[in-house]
Batch of 2 targets.
Target 1
Amino acid sequence: MEVVSSVRTPLVTGAKTVGDVTQDICERVEAKPAKSWFLAIAISLCFLAVGIYSLYVTLWEGIGVWGLNKTIGWAWDITNFVWWVGIGHAGTLISAILLLFRQKWRMSINRAAEAMTIFAVICAAIFPLVHMGRLWLGFYWVLPLPNTFGSLWVNFNSPLLWDVFAITTYFTVSLVFWYIGLIPDFATIRDRAKNKISAAIYGALSFGWTGAAKDWSRYETVSLILAGLATPLVLSVHTIVSFDFATSIIPGWHTTIFPPYFVAGAVFSGFAMVLTLMLITRKVYKLEDYITIQHIENMNIIIIVTGSIVGIAYLTELFMAWYSGVSYEQYAFLNRATGPYWWAYATMMTCNVVSPQLFWFKKIRTSLWATFALSIVVNIGMWFERFVIIVTSLHRDFLPSSWAMFYPTFYDVGDYLFTFGFFFTAFFLFAKFFPVINMAEVKGIIKSNTSSQKALK
Amino acid sequence: MTTGTNYILGVYGDDDAALKAVKQIRAAGVKVHEVYSPFPIHGIDEALGYKRSRLPRAAFMFGTLGLILALTMQFWMLGYDWQMIIGGKNYASLPPFIPVTFELTVLLSALGMVATFMIASDLKPYKKARIFDIRITDDKHVVAIDLASNNALAKEEISSIVAQSGAEEVNEKIFE
């Protein structure tokens, strides 16, 4: 018997019973999709269609269709890659790190956040894959496969190769973690299925789950250990992404604070994306009793913390550039703030450093509209952060004769749209056909939760 | 006598009631086949006399395997099979191999443990679930008692023990 303090705000409101949880979540899966859902998926598919055309041209013609030039060899592609990987980080933080810290408020948001992680990592992976040019030969370039050149092996000293291993492992482990959590909930849908087709599909997806105590015991062990493995994993992923830059000698990239700063930035943008999507899902699916203001406030507090870490990192970079006495380093930062890309730097500073500080006001961090608006602002800011780091560090290199500017082409934008189309299509399909809230976990806290609500009355 | 396996089921609406019932039923000398519930009941493992899962050991062993494989692969490929000078450094040294080693350790540990779990619990896509009560995955907790393993007691006796343990319903289930 678990005792929860009556002072603590209940995690699930509306005096729900265990049966109500099943009913509330399953009926979204069983009911015919709403008109708003069709509209949402139609818009996503339009983005996807434009994106597919753009990606097709990029693959057919080569990456020359992008706006890259001799000076700026990385621009939107890697910006988008880092941005999407970062967005994925919130899902693992919620499901793994908050599980280890026994934060029960994670339970009603972890399923959707993990789904976002998986879709975001797929979106991220598209950019380095396309950037390889001849993607169909890429397997030999990035995986240690025997080949007819010797075998000439991959270079294990390269951070780009570490990235391949980090992203692949991260994707696989996240997918497995997510799926293990889904099995008991698929069994619930299977046992409620009205027709043969859905019974067969959810039956196969549920892997023959019966809810036996022995299986639950193993399930809990597996969840705990996967959380323990995913925690250092998620920290390693963005650390290694930052190594792509930090191990180079480019002024503006050659920085030892990159790993922690990138991880904080990733969690920051990830929580912003979780908020954007969860506020919509909560409204459309009427999940106000499961995703309460308390959940939103907690996520906003994480945004203040990580946003402030990012802000400190920006200031530390500026200080180190000055303090190092290296003229190239100093110029790189002066050029960032006052050069031709000052507007990108200003956007980044405003969106990432100033805007999250508004969440110190309780009124703002408990307001749905303010949270929704700021969550989008944060993600715009985080996109610009990567753009600033990548493009402004490259565009004025050591030879003034090769200084250049980057102008995106239709295909730069189109390939980015592809990932948006894919991400939202995948998310809407998930929200329709999968249980958006982890029913089994939420059922486990219902009793202690309702007794604390009774004590309040 | 009916053919197949015959079970007596105690249905409970609450996890603590099911936990208490399991202790009572086992104290009365009845062997419990298994308890089925919509979410994990804390303390049920001890009440049923289950040993701690050995899955952490599986995870550790698969992780160690990943670590050894990753290090062997990298040192063999770059240090022995095709030596190359990259950036004027040694052919093979440990520090740059750590990221890949870490990732492969985590990957094999996670996949190996999950595969062990799937095999141990016999979970697979084409498996037909052995459903004792359709409401288990909704909100009911079921204590199942296999009659064949309780030969010493009559069916009626077991039913009355289950009923006294606070069951909302006492049902019978026959698997052909």
Note: Chain A touches chain B through 69 residues (CB under 8 Å).
Target 2
Amino acid sequence: MTTPMLEIRGLHATAGGTPILKGIDLVLMPGEVHAVMGPNGSGKSTLANVLAGKPGYEVTAGQVLFEGKDLTAMAPEERARAGVFLAFQYPVEIPGVSNLYFLKQAVNAVRQHRGIEELDAMEFLQLARQKMKLVEMSDKLMQRALNEGFSGGEKKRNEILQMALLDPKLAVLDETDSGLDIDALRIVAGGVNALRGPERSMLVITHYQRLLEHIVPDRVHVLSGGRIVKSGDKSLALELEDKGYGWIQQSAEGGAARA
Amino acid sequence: MSNETLEQLANRDYEWGFTTDIEMDIVEPGLSEDVIRFISAKKEEPAWMVEWRLEAYRRWQKMAEPHHWAKVSYPEIDYQAIRYYAAPKQKVKLDSLDELDPELRRTYEKLGISLDEQKRLAGVAVDAVFDSVSVATTFKKELEKHGIIFCPFSEAVHKAPELVQQYLGSVVPQGDNFFAALNSAVFTDGSFVYIPPGVRCPMELSTYFRINASETGQFERTLIIADKGAYVSYLEGCTAPQRDENQLHAAVVELVALDDAVIKYSTVQNWYPGDADGKGGIYNFVTKRGKCAGRRSKISWTQVETGSAITWKYPSCILLGDDSVGEFYSVALTSKRQQADTGTKMIHIGKNTKSTIVSKGISAAHGQNTYRGLVRIQKGAEGARNHSQCDSLLIGDTCGAHTFPYLEVQNPTAKVEHEATTSKIGEDQLFYCRQRGISEEDAVNMIVNGFCKRVLKELPMEFAVEAQKLLGVSLEGAVG
């Protein structure tokens, strides 16, 4: 039997001490792309942060297995090196550190961990140039300080570029569509689609259906009140778009009442 | 990031804290005219030199220690409890470097300073000062071919008495301030450099200062003169053993640049900073000043200050010659319980004089970091220009950064610009880096180095690499 890429069982988690996730179950197989949708405050970003190991987020019950190993026991950098990538909703700026240098450090940290030889500046530049095409990234943006003064679209394209360079097994995309105009959305989604493959799984977190027109998921999960209240195929996203989150919340409450 | 990691990063071990066991020639603690005569006699100084010292001593006795204006605090210093002379016992005069005490040679090897000319990095000459004396100077003969004098100060008094008499105290007068007056009375060794007209010094000159003896103060004196059209790049480095008592280091550095001369003076200061609770460490109370005496002359100060319990220094430029240029590039890092009150003074006197100030302060753990800088444009300084950039970076919640710019403009044609920023290494930045596989420590180093880049690139190549490592080491245990 194939080991799931990600297996979440009965996950409860707090953010800054407040309970947010209240029992999540989700299985993501290699090569699958799942979407997680839900209204504001449903716990979408908490889920992303818990998977990446952000300080301040605490697992209080349940399990998270990555390729069968306990992910919660690993430090954030260990998770990253093992192949877990988070595309941030709000990528941070680091003044004085060039984008290119930052990416090289990250790629070499991961390569070192995997026992592959580190890349020197020239080799890295070649690799970067190749991947930059994916998201139409300019040389100019590579020379600038990391994300400093980047537009919303440039920041998100930079996230996907990092994903392409770091070659993760599991990519969590946290509201990658937020703040993007339609052209930027197309570029970003194009980059993500190019990175889909049988060895890579993705968890696409989004508020809106429009991203899923470009990145077509295998499964859609609806998160509400810290639980997955409904799962289905891609048509579920369309249904949501049609009826709104109110519909799902009501039916979830109805379900809870019946139980 | 977790506070524990930060604490660990901030309180990393000081790896230069060892002591050298060697027979020393040392005076009893205390300061008097007799002690000054003793120092002078040890160095076989001429009468004018001892008179100059005694005059400084008499001035110093009438001065009060400044306590109030700098943002530093420390217990009263007992000047009678300090030893003013300590020197390793060795043959009075070395005929060649081969005769150097092997224990001293090993000390410098351990510090990464090779006194073996063959093994030395090509292009760097070293004057090694151990407590109160210079123990070795490399490449002297090579430099003499170019007419360059590079020797211990005590040797220069005999070798180039006219130059010493003409320029000693010409930039920092005896009574300039309390610590400069003390230094003028009791200074022991330091380096003397003279570059003749039109000569570009073919190698980097450097002095490595090492405090070894306990209860001893180090009072070095450095004088660099670049004659017309000359160029020199000079670098000093410093370390000291790890001790629970504080030790005083009160140096004076004077630079003189004549017409079209350029002096580049770089410091990598790594005196023992004390422990995480603020016990021990060096008081680094230093007066450094350069005079752009000639037209189109240039003096550039670059400092990387990572050590000392307290740093109190303002490498300054007096821009006397028309079209002369002054520069100050500084990185000051305070971690543990370190305090720094540092910056510069740019005094514009000549026409069309220009100055640039780039100051980067980094505070971590319980460090307190103050930038204090004066830009004065005097009446006659037509067309003078200054640009100042002062940035502070905070790591954690228990440190402090302070900026005190003083601008005095007496000429309406002057252009003076001052920019300042304060930022903090955020948990979000660290998490972002870690999510990309970069360890917390590497992330902090990367952010700090990015912050200091503009200053570090002013250092000679090999020292820039050292400085970068040093910043990383100084922050170990402090990140958070």
Note: Chain A touches chain B through 29 residues (CB under 8 Å).
